[in-house]
Amino acid sequence: MDVGIVSYGAYVPRYRITPMEIGRVWGQDGKAMSKGLYINSKSVPSPDEDVVTISAQAARGMMRRVQVDPADIGALYVGSESHPYAVKPTGTIVAEAIEASPELCVADLEFACKAGTAGMQMVMGMVGSGMIRYGVAIGADTSQGAPGDALEYSASAGGAAFLIGREDIIARFNGTLSYTTDTPDFWRREGQPYPSHGGRFTGEPAYFKHVGEAARRMMERMGTSPGDYNHIVLHQPNGKFPQRMASMLGFSDEQVSRGLLTPMVGNTYSGAVPLGLAAVLDVAKPGDRILAVAYGSGAGSDAFDITVTDAIKGFDRGAAPTIDAMMENTRELDYATYAKYRGKILMKG
Amino acid sequence: MTVARFWRDIPSRYNLYGSRCSGCGKVYFPMRHICPECRRSSIGKMQRHRLSGKGRVHSFSVVHDAPPQLAALKPYAVAIVEMDEGVKVTGQLVDVDIEEIDIGMGVEAVLRKIGDEGPGGIIHYGFKFSPRFD
Amino acid sequence: MREVAVIGTGVTQFGELWDHSFRQVGIQAGLEAVYDANLSGSEIDAMYIGNMSSGRFIDQHHIGALIADYSGMASHNVPSTRIEAAGASGSLAFRQGVMAVASGMHDVVVVGGAEKMTDVSDDASNFILNSAADQQWESMMGATFASLHAMIAKRYIHEGYATREQIAQVAVKSHLHGALNPKAQFQRQIKLETVLRSPMVAEPLTMFDCSPISDGAAAVVLCPLDKAHEYTDKPVKVLGTGQASDTLALYQRPDICSFGATKVASRMAYDIAGVGPEDIDLVEVHDDYTISELLALEDMGFFPRGEAGRAVESGETEIGGRLPVNTSGGLKARGNPIGATGVAQIVELVTQLRGDADKRQVKGAKTGMAQSIGGTGSTAVITIMGVA
Lengths: 349, 134, 388
Prior knowledge:
A: 349 residues; three-stranded mixed beta sheet; C: 388 residues; Peroxisomal Thiolase, Chain A, domain 1; 18% strand
């Protein structure tokens, strides 16, 4: 029996900051940064938001859209590189928040920006094998860039949750594969508040090689070509990389645009491909085919070939906020407020 | 606060579990063992009852003089919310401009951090209210 | 039941008493009251001490024994009991003392109330005060004690019961009276603009809508009315008391613009005293926040709902008006050392009814009434007193 997406939910915090505002503070050309990265604004979590709350809101939206008994969820994985606890799972809190506890398997995952899609693959395997009826995979982050670092212009917050099963699926997984090597392009050591990166090394040998290889191999395995897909959703550390990657693979801007959120919300890390996929599912029609390729530094790519089913017609998208709704009603912050919200100001202990 | 003291309340903090008297049908939050209306006849008849999370602002205030733990949120709004089930609940209002808040405004429960026990301590999650989505 | 009289009073200066410890403050008021009652000390049968949170303000529990010890009563092994009901701790200690004398259990009883609040930071103090509300389902949700009262005020204004200015006028009136009380924390008159323009605490309430953080103590001595003349020429009689509870959390009430416990306790006290609101010459109410005073005046039956604000605005509640309210300056201007507050109200009533209130004297005062609140109306204590 086919394994696919039964429901999904997304969450992006309300606050935004622009590259121009960040550049103003650090004496950099924000406008040029914005143009170079193709990021017009990035999302900022409120001080009372973190990966737990973002995951829980996304998962609750996911559950609102279907009539699935949360007790039938057999697994829940949260992929993130900003889990609020170093030790103590995010997933148990999220599982409790959607009342999927206690008979389920929960684990937190980390693989830079692709831990959410890694979770999807794990759940696909469990559902496909008949081990569980439904499983939830969530990718979410509240990433931080060091003040003044290039990453600060992009690192943002958001996430999406997917309910995966075999019944009433709105999108079928035709296949998935991963491409993984040991490529240290971006890392964060235990106890360090901000990540480090290899600068331009994060491009060709890292992002482009892994995303490109995974996408090519996926199409080769499925016997498809770019023209067979309505949408391509790629990892999007900035707005430019996925556009360039898609064009290198032979995809058009139209195929990229719906799943490209980074220009509006910045790099949501583990949330990036899950949110892009959610944005596509928000508008997808039966028969639409989607190629999604996540990327996690360190490094690896997860590719998914997905076909939207007829069931999407009866799917209650309106029961939870759409990505478009989250792009409206936003509030822009100045850098001082952003610094306060992100805990960048030294407070009295 | 010890970990157990918070942990015990997780069903109410995350999912607004209260009690419903199976005698008179009245709903309470948080949980009660005795219905103040039915008293003796309600013993053993109080059922766990999950609130919908939806309600309306009965009254509110914008807090300027706040505990240090909530300093980053200042000024923040706190409200008494009358839930659709008739029972009232106190919680913060989030994702709304202060000047847009008014008595009668529709809100729904969302999960947020409500506090923590310092940078090395446990994080407390619980409900706050945001403008109603639907 | 025996009739009970107050035969002596004592009250310290209220305010930031940096050079006084808890025990010094407590003892000072007690000794003053014992001296006023012309007691040697050996007549004392029991002590009741109102205190909200010495355990958290000064890390000291077992206040009953501490006060007994430092007032020299430990050597007489006098039983001493600490009473706690948040803001109503002092008034409740008084009521316990009255019941002890009325029942015949004890003859001479000292009732004290004390709080030392300034030995902790303002943040810590506010945190402790928040515990008078429902810690788990109000304070922990981000509702400060001030914000709970602000929500009452917001709804009260929304219902059209008073204007923001009328609520603020309560503080102006309190300061007007406080200026006449040499023991008050604030003895300076203020303008309405001062209240409206002072820093916001919890909208709509500003700093001047809130009672201050204070140190202080108050004490009275009780004995059976028929023995009162052995000690004093001017005993003041306890005509009636009442006490009532309500939900701990404000949000649990159907109507947040009224304190049901005040209504019930008032009715109880009126019935026992055989008087009604029209017989009361002056009243001390629990104005921990300005809005609380308006609720109190309506719940006690002095004004119909929605009329108290107008009455305050028109000067009816000033000394010389139809019903002088908080002639002491109230919690707002006299100060609010939590455990002492309820006893200080009794001291003010006794002072007025004895005719000893000097510049703030309500002429011809025969009957006075006090209302004291714990939390947001969760405990209400009412006392009615009259000239003996």
